Amino acid sequence: TLALLATARWGGGNADAAAAELRREAPALLSALVPGPDNDPELVLRRPATAANRGELAALEQIWTSRWRTLLARATEDPTWAWQAALADSSGDRPVDLVLLVDLSESMATEVEEARSALAEMLPALLRARPDWRIGWIGYRDEVVDRSPLTADRRVLVESLERWRCEGGGDVPEALDEALFEAFRVGGFPWRTEARHRFIVFGDAPPPYDRIAGMVELGRAAHESPERFELDCIGILREEPFGDIAFDTVPGFAELAEGTGGSAVFLRTGTSTIGTWWSRLAGPGAPPWEEAPRH
What is the mean pLDDT of the chain? Predict the structure, then answer.
């Protein structure tokens, strides 16, 4: 209905009040909204118009059209609504199923805490603008240690982030390849056929060297499958990650992203990851996170 559409697109506040009022105005007589010319909303009245109710239907159409135009006017004036509308418009037409693959080993403690705090605001903002998205995650160290299923419930998702605790994993290799296998396996996540299937990897270490090629091939095969999985990587570079050898990459991350239609970005220790997270989550055309209204 109009009420639900407006609330989902621009969030709470005045829209919630308007939605509640609209729902009280004989919702059984109005069953659908479709885009009209120039994306103007067009009311579709499913109930047959009879001599007895034709006047009532015409009056309701006038009421609902007026309320919709009021909501649109408020959206252009209210920075909260305008920002969320811009985010919704920039994030594509298809729904998204997104899984975060997060290295929860002790070396990632600082970066994970920064990410957890930022994502507790970013992910709800995405889901307010795009209620057809679902987000979940897998945490790994030397093995998969935790996971949260795909959900569009903002409260459930944010509460699950509290389980991101970094410990152990003292040796360099981490089980990213096992986390990928867990995500790709049949029954691992209930992927929707109509959605884009996306991953974001966040870590500072590859799997054991003799398993990197297999991990890259697994990703490539998943990308070429009917599900068309896509994957981006955010790699953290340590000063001396492997003894006295320093790298300008996390081995395997760039190859994994390239083989799955995504990209990899690498940040030095101490560099903020917040902007990188937002660009990977929302896409290059999204409004800047710095301008996001804070709820």
Answer: 80
